[in-house]
Amino acid sequence: MSTTPHDHVFKLVFSEPSELAPVLRALLPPSVALHLDLAQLSPAPTEQLDGDLRMRAPDLLYRAPWRSGDRAEVVFVIEHQSSPDPLMPLRALRTTVRVWEQVEGSRLPMVVTLLFAHGAKPWTAPTRVSELYDATPDAVEGLGGALPELRLVLQDLAITPDEAMPGEGGGKLALILLRHAHKGNVWDALEANVPLFAEAVKRLGDSRAVGLLTYAMHVSDVPWERRLAEKILPLLKPPQREVIVGYADRRFEEGVAVGEQRGELRGEARGETRGRRATILDMFRRRFKSFTSAHEAVILNADMDQLEHLMDSFFTIQHPDELLNGQADQER
Known about the structure:
single chain; alpha/beta; five-stranded mixed sheet; 15 helices; elongated
């Protein structure tokens, strides 16, 4: 099964029980969370849900015991979706039944499905099995007690402000980044939450915390700015610091290659100099919203040496007007 960057970062962070537990405490009714021993939250293999469900196994599966110890553990099915799935309640019901089928004895554990929706728009698909019945509302209500029902515990990131996001440390930051991945401002979100990244490093360790950075680099069209790198890199130990710097460089080079290809497609890349102009112009347009024709003229009139200088200074320039200042300095 293919893995998206969203899927990778979600599982990377929430496969750690200590990151999921604060989220559950925030989302579950207090009367339930109070009596669950979430310190003993433990992951369960999704492969146990074999058969026809193997290709649609849940993203994560967890178990949590009651503090009293006299009841079956609660099973938490953890799912995430970047686009609405109208049959999501049915998927959850199938998973629930499959969990129950593996129980020995006559008593069943509670199975709760938590869905984290991180699409560009709010979730509009059904959240209850009863919404899927092809019947009149009166019929569904009248036979409600005789029909299977299940409700998803939905956390819609599209309508959840960053400050209200559940969780702590890496878990909270992961949800914030998932929310902003569709908004084109993932770096702004990270810069506003550097303390959460520092906490993620302590809770998850350097190597897993770096996964949050590689995710941001993967979903963003522009590289991170120097001022943000200067805040983030000191939080990492040298081995992982070098890893993320190398990854950032590779993503930058890939962006350059894409820009050159776009330049050729536009007919602007006739020769090496024109191709480089198109590349750099594309990069600056993506980075700065206030990029005017005067700024463009500096790049379009630059020779190869000046273009090399622009490429080298791309990470350090804070405002496009610095291009105009640099041009004046060269003319003097």
